[in-house]
Structure formats: structure tokens, C-alpha cells
Hints:
With 465 residues, this protein is an alpha+beta fold. The protein is 58% helix and 10% strand.
Amino acid sequence: MKAEDSRQANTQTEEPARNAGGAGLGAETDVTTRPRTKAEWEQESGLMDVVCERGNLKLAYQRVVENKGAAGVDGIGIAEFKDHLKQHWPTIKAKLLAGEYMPQPVRRVDIPKPQGGTRTLGIPTLTDRMIQQALHQVLSPIFEADFSESSYGFRPGRNAHQAVKAAKQYVAEGRRIVVDMDLEKFFDRVNHDLLMEKLSKKIDDGRVLRLIRRYLEAGMMADGMVSQRTEGTPQGGPLSPLLSNILLTELDRELERRGHAFCRYADDCNIYVRSQQAGERVMASITRFLADTLKLTVNAAKSAVAPPWKRKFLGYSLTWHKAPKLKIAPTSLKRLEDKIREVLQGARGRSLATVITELNPILRGWMAYFKLTETKKALEELDGWIRHKLRCILWRQWKRPYTRATNLMKAGLTEERAFRSAFNQRGPWWNSGASHMHQAFPKSFFDRLGLVSLLDTMRRLQCVQ
């Protein structure tokens, strides 16, 4: 808010310079003696001027460039973006300040969901991403104060790890039933009129409200055809997460009014209660509230009232103990395995060092997110499985039995054992898990090659927390 106040102060101090001279003074005097027009009232509220302030736009530009990302419907990428702005920004800024800017359609991209189906993204042009980011930077402090303490998604200073820890605490306190609510196609079903009503309670500048409405209604282009939208706020733009939080704050307040313990991360909401009966009652009443008040639908097939250890939340699950421990959900483990299989496809033509170099960023990033896990068995098994896959690559690369025997002897096996193992007529997967390959290529061998160990990484990350 301080940054916003200072920008507003700067804007106000600059106004007299723009209206210097007798004509400007005459216009000011005229305004005081007659009712203000809507356009004059919007200009005085000044929020769009704050959005278009140079420092705010510079920060928005930097964040868009740092995030990189794909081009929108205009085909302009990061490399051409700066030159594009130099040529067109004065015109765009004038239209923004006049309340006449019209966003371009978003580019439709369908990506597969881990649980099946597809998620539709709407990729704005880089120019629209920058404008949305500038809006976000100004609007976020205005609405942030109204957000719930139990809301963790897409907010400054809040993250998924805090949400997972809060969920664990609720279960430890005896709330051993979770009402796991999945909002059906939330980002595609947001009611525009409801959202604009909530925005108008905090935003006085009609130019900003009209611009947000235009972003909500911007067409979506797929295969060269543009389809109009009457509901939804597609994922892909910087403004979408903030708008979702603004709408769902009403759900947060309703849950707080009822005294519920809950965690919400964007449209992923878990409510923790003490009995199955209470959970069923909460599920029914909140489903009605969402339908009647926010015009949103709960996906009955993906929602459930169950013990927390039978559900997942933000990739984590919990153990059934009285003092529960965080663990990695089975679906999260399977997703990593699928990603590793994808990397290892066709690895026979590459050196082991090259394959490990490609694997390591994936393993580091995955473990950085799942560093809160308090069970090590799954990580030990994953580490062993990855080394098994890498030994299998070696075995396949050697192809001929004599080559296999030679390499096993180089790795320290006796001649008799190396030849017996090389000629055992078993398959690659069996041999790569057998004792001769474990002895020849133990964990220390892969450590020397720099392979990231998930278990070792977890221990190191937890030590520095």
C-alpha cells in the first residue's frame, strides 16, 4: 500500500504541470461550479494513471521478460517485444488512459491433466501480459487486506508449503476427516457479472473496470478461429489468479463465519472436521452455497469426504498416525516416474553422464517442492529404481556378451563371475537389478557421476530449514 500511496502522491503532484496556464485554470473553475461528468470523475479517481506510471510498467515489463513464455496470437516473442513496445507503446498508453484499449484474443492451448482430461490455457500477447501484470501490481495491495488467513494461493509471502503444514496441524488437532472439494472447471465457469460486482466495490476508476471486463470477455483463438467468451477467466494471464482469489474470498468468509478449519489454494479447498457425519453435512451445505451464491459447481466425482490419508492436497498426503506425518502422494510419485521414463527413452545412444545431466534438474526441482515429506521409504525406492534404470541402459549399450564381460571386469568383478554373469541369458532388466551389476556399479559410482539422490537431497534441505 505504501508503494501505491507514493505513486498516487507522485501522480497528484504532477497534475498541475499538465494543466498549467489560464485555460487550465478556467477549466478547473468550471468543474467546481457544475456537476462532474462520468469521464471527469473517472479521471480524478486516477487508478489507471497509477497502472500506467513508468516505474510500475518497468517492473511489469521485467517480470514478463523474466517469465519468458510463449507468444500470443500476434506471434511476437520475447526477442521482438522491446522493439514492438518502442514503436507502439505511446499509442497503447494513450488508449489505456482514455479507457479505449481493446485487448487482443488469447491463444488457446490445451495441456493434459495428470489425472486425465485436458486443461485449457488462454495465452495473452506479451503486450497484454505486461498490462495485466501492471494491473496486478496495483490491484493486489488493494484487495490483499481482505483475503483470508486460510488462503495460500498466488499471494505475496504465501505458498503451498504453508498450506500443507496448516492441513497437517488441523489433522493433528483431531480433525481426522477432510471435505475435499473440487470445483468443476473453475477457471472456465467464473461468472463475469459477479466478479465485476466485487471489483467495483473497491475500484472507483471506470477505465480499470472496463479494461478488466474486456480481458474477461476477450475472444479465444484456436485454429485461426476466434470464439467469444461469456464466462470464465482462463489460466495463462497474470491477472487470472488474483481475480480467482477475489471471487473465492466470499467462500473463505462463509467458512470462517461457520467456524470451519480449512485451507484453500486457488480453487483447491480442503475443510477439516471431526466426524464423517459432519463432513457429509458440510459438503452438502457448501455445495449449495457455491451454486447459489457464486454460481459454481462442485465436481462430485472428484470430491469426497474421507480420512486425509486417503486423499491428496497439493501433491502431499498424510499418514494415519495420531501425530500425522507428511508424505508424498502416490499420484505425485507416479508422475515423477513417468517424467523419468520420458527422459530415458532413447538413452541407449547417449552417454550415462549426458543422461544424468538431463535428469538432475528434474530431480532437484521435484525434491525442492517435496522437501517437507517426513517419510523416507518412497524416496529410497525411487532412488533405487532410478539407478536400476541407469544400469539397464549400460547393459543394453554393451550389447554383446563379451563386451559385457569385459566391462564387468573393468568395474572390478573377477573374470569367472564376469563371464558367468554376461552369458546368463537373462534379460536386461533382470541383469541390471542383479548383484553383479550392483557390485560393479554401486551408489557411490553414480554419486561420482553427479546423480542427484532424492533421499540425500531431502536430508540436506531439511537441515537448512
